[in-house]
Amino acid sequence: MKKHLKDAASWTLKSSSSSQEAVNNEQAINNEQAVNNEQADSPNANEIFPKDTPASTTAIVPSKFISRDDFFTTWLSWKDEFLTYMKDIDKEEANRNMWGIMLLNRMGPVGQEICRTFSFHDKNAQDDIKVLIKKFDIYCMYRDKKKVNEDIDKYVNDLKLTATAHNYSDPASIVREKIIEDISTQRFTGKAALFIERKGTNFIPFLQSLDLNNIILFWKQCEDLMAQKCNEYNEEMPKQNAAHVTSIVIDCSRCGKQHNRNRCLAWGVQCSKCKQFNHLTECCKVKYVDNCTKCGTSHIQSRCPAFGEVCTKCGKSNHLSWKCQIPFINNCWRCGQDHVASACPAQGQICRRCNKPNHLEEQCASKLDDNTQQQ
């Protein structure tokens, strides 16, 4: 009896072991098939580029990133190797539209995981090599966002210093893209939120149409608007009078028309004179100078380019030489030089030849008469 039990137990163990081995083999086969499928789905140079294109290349194929630390350490040099490699295998750049896919493929799982954290406002930009590289540049160099109470000018200056420290070829462009990214992901409140909501899908194109200085100015104005109440009048009125409030028509000084509160057509519009927002150019209250007599350009009264400049003609300040209105004398008969009428070097000088004032001996009329008689 014991022998039968022992044999049965032995058979059960063998059967169980065989079953487990079969399961393991099946899982191994499934895993291998999954890996093969994933590798088959991943694009490579042979699949992307035509077979009749020469496959030989002398460029170094960059290796995949093994960790995020590896990415932060080597990305800037890694991308140069990648671009060199791509230019070598696609010299005519006939398949440049596929470079973005190749980039993610060569970066491996680490790069693809980082890419999933990016936000793309244009779906067509997800595979754009320029857009991807710039986003990876920003991710590599700038890991933090602006703190709540951090000064914008200080923050922007730190961004510029970081780009310079990384020897970035165009610091202004990467700083501009970083600020656009920060603004687009910042949670604005109050009047700033109202303005951004009204821009809708045109908000990002609006930011991209501005240069770096105007983006910074716009950001500062949004921060200022956040401190203001969204609709002070409505907050003071009871909720039951909300319909009455919105029906009030005002004479707007920003657009010059009559309209309901918070329905101004000038909201979000940039004035072409003062470059400020939320009023039309014809309603601008800033004093503006057309064809300035000091610099020759048109500008806000307090922003003349000639302010502090020294005229090379008369030596006086706050106007440019080509707009100098002081009379100028060429080949002065008193001193023989070119100068402003009020700055003759002979003024107050006594001629040693005729003892008369306000001319030099070389320009003395009696000397000139003598020379004429001798001739």
Automatic annotation (TrEMBL):
<feature type="domain" description="CCHC-type">
    <location>
        <begin position="270"/>
        <end position="286"/>
    </location>
</feature>
<dbReference type="GO" id="GO:0003676">
    <property type="term" value="F:nucleic acid binding"/>
</dbReference>
<dbReference type="InterPro" id="IPR001878">
    <property type="entry name" value="Znf_CCHC"/>
</dbReference>
<dbReference type="GO" id="GO:0008270">
    <property type="term" value="F:zinc ion binding"/>
</dbReference>
<feature type="domain" description="CCHC-type">
    <location>
        <begin position="331"/>
        <end position="346"/>
    </location>
</feature>
<feature type="domain" description="CCHC-type">
    <location>
        <begin position="310"/>
        <end position="326"/>
    </location>
</feature>
<protein>
    <recommendedName>
        <fullName>CCHC-type domain-containing protein</fullName>
    </recommendedName>
</protein>
<feature type="domain" description="CCHC-type">
    <location>
        <begin position="291"/>
        <end position="306"/>
    </location>
</feature>
<feature type="domain" description="CCHC-type">
    <location>
        <begin position="350"/>
        <end position="366"/>
    </location>
</feature>
<feature type="region of interest" description="Disordered">
    <location>
        <begin position="1"/>
        <end position="28"/>
    </location>
</feature>
<dbReference type="InterPro" id="IPR036875">
    <property type="entry name" value="Znf_CCHC_sf"/>
</dbReference>
